[in-house]
Structure formats: C-alpha cells, structure tokens
Design brief:
Number of domains: 2
Number of strands: 13
Helix content: 25-40%
Largest sheet: 6 strands, antiparallel
CATH architecture of the largest domain: 3-Layer(aba) Sandwich
Length: 295
C-alpha cells in the first residue's frame, strides 16, 4: 500500500522565515491526518540549471536537508534530480506522476510564487486547480514581509553579498553558515600572532562581501568565538579568540555574526599587525557581551 504524505513544495534555499510558513502548514496537516510530512525539493537550483549559470545559494544541499528536518520539522526530504527530463515535464504530468503516483500526495502546500513544470508554466493557481481535480487538499501561502520587504532567497543572497549579515539573519531566522575543510595557507597569520584556519567557501554558495567578520566557528562539535577574513577568492581565514589547535584536514563550520570592516591594503607588516590586534580586541569585547559562554 502506497504511503500517503503531506507535501511542502519548493526549492527552499536557506529554509528562511517565509519557507517555514509553508513547512508549518504541511507539518500541521500531517499531524492532523496522522501521515508523514515531507518537503519536495530539487538537487540543483532550477533557474541556474535552465539558464546555464553557476548556482549561487544560501546553503548546500546537505545543509538544506538538515534545516528542512530540524527547523522545518519535516519527517522526510524528497530530493528530485533537476535533469533534462524533469525540465521538460508538463505541469499536469508533474502533479499526476510525481506528486500523486510517486509520492502519494494527500495534501500539498506551496508559496504564492511557486512554479513547476516545463518553462515554469505551472504556478500556484494551476497547482491548486490540478490538486482539486484529483481530490487532493492544497493550500498556498501569501507573500510574507519583514520591515516592509518581501522575504525571499534572492533578497537574503543580496544582503549576504553586501555584507549585511544581521539583515540576512533577520530574514533567514538563523545564521548564514558554511562549512569546509581546513587547508594549509601561507602561515602569515601565525607569524603575526594570529594563527588562522583557512576554510574555502563551497563553490555553490553566495560569497559574502570581502572583509573582516565576527563569527562563531564549530570545530569537533564545539563552538568558539572567532574573527575571520573573507576574500574575493572565496577563502575564509578564521582566528579563534580563545582556542588554538591544529585543525588541518578537519571540517569546520562558520556562522557569520556581523561585518567589521572592508578589506584594505597595508603599507607594512607593522601596520597590519596593529590592525589585527585592534580587530581581535574589538571581537573579544563584542563576544563578551553577546556570547560570554564561548570563552
């Protein structure tokens, strides 16, 4: 017997505050019907795939799945490969063969701007109509705004790219986070008394504005107060304020907290060291107020 599900539809990049309104509908209806709640998403960004451009995302697929389960309280995350066949699937076929026959849709919900099917021809009103014709419940969420602006993944990406980390976090509902494997660098920071972990930003993610940031770093399951430099070359150099260890080859996650200053050139190592000491002091004072428990 096929499993019936309450389905939340969307790409869900970032799993932000507007996404969670959709997910909450699926969770509530699933509980009422005593069936699993599942998010239906894609492995790649549809717009990027269709237009042949590089993906620029808020989170990786692994992060998205984790957030959908933890923050969105989904029992399952059903990931569809956004391949040529799916790109050319008519909206009617998508609902009939994928949502109903394959995933056992008993209830479906999506955002007001959800599109599906070939050339994005399927929209929220059509989804509602096709579901009604098949006897499936369907709900569509309205536009969700914060401070007068629509919450969307593109708006959040723009804030991250501008270095507006608090603004991005307000729309996300959680910190912008990325993870990477610590690599060997030039060891300049160590000679300045500022040993850093060199963490490459995943290729699929939007790159924050180059500059110095306050951040939290997770190493071996423990969070630490840190300050980091992110370059236009997509490299994060993070210095933990109260912990020093050899982390080469290990996975470190970075949560950006706030932008401190833009990148700039220094006339000498002495001038650079003076600025580094100032950045460390500023970061220490900030974290003592915000996250004293990290020390």
């Amino acid at each position: 017997m096929q499993i019936q599900r309450a389905l939340a539809l969307g790409f869900f990049d970032g799993v932000h505050t507007a996404h969670r309104r959709v997910l909450a509908l699926a969770r509530a209806r699933a509980d009422a019907l005593q069936i699993p709640a599942a998010a239906v998403t894609f492995d790649h960004q549809p717009a990027a795939k269709i237009h042949g451009v590089a993906e620029e995302l808020i989170c990786t697929l692994d992060q998205r799945i984790r957030l959908l389960k933890q923050e969105g309280q989904m029992d399952e995350v059903l990931v569809l490969p956004f391949d040529t066949d799916l790109m050319h699937t008519a909206p009617e076929r998508f609902v009939r063969e994928t949502l109903i026959s394959r995933f056992g849709a008993r209830y479906v919900c999506a955002g007001f701007n959800y599109h599906f099917g070939k050339n994005g021809a399927g929209n929220a009103p059509l989804l509602r109509k096709l579901c009604a014709e098949s006897g499936i419940e369907c709900e569509i969420t309205e536009k969700y705004c914060v401070d007068g602006g629509k919450v969307s993944s593109s708006a959040i990406r723009a804030r991250i790219a501008q270095g507006d980390i608090p603004g991005a976090q307000k729309l996300l509902g959680h910190p912008f986070t990325f993870c990477g494997t610590v690599q060997h660098g030039k060891a300049l920071g160590r000679t300045l008394g500022f040993p850093t972990m060199n963490i490459p930003l995943p290729d699929v993610l939007v790159c924050p504005a180059p500059g110095v940031y306050l951040c939290r770093t997770q190493l071996r399951g423990v969070w630490h107060a840190a300050v980091c430099n992110i370059s236009g070359a997509r490299l994060c150099e993070a210095f933990m304020l109260a912990h020093e260890t050899d982390a080469y080859g290990e996975t470190v996650c970075v949560e950006l907290e706030a932008f401190v200053r833009p990148m700039r050139k220094f006339s000498s190592l002495e001038e650079l060291k003076k600025q580094v000491d100032f950045d460390k002091k500023y970061a220490y004072d900030w974290f003592m107020i915000q996250y004293k428990s990290l020390f």
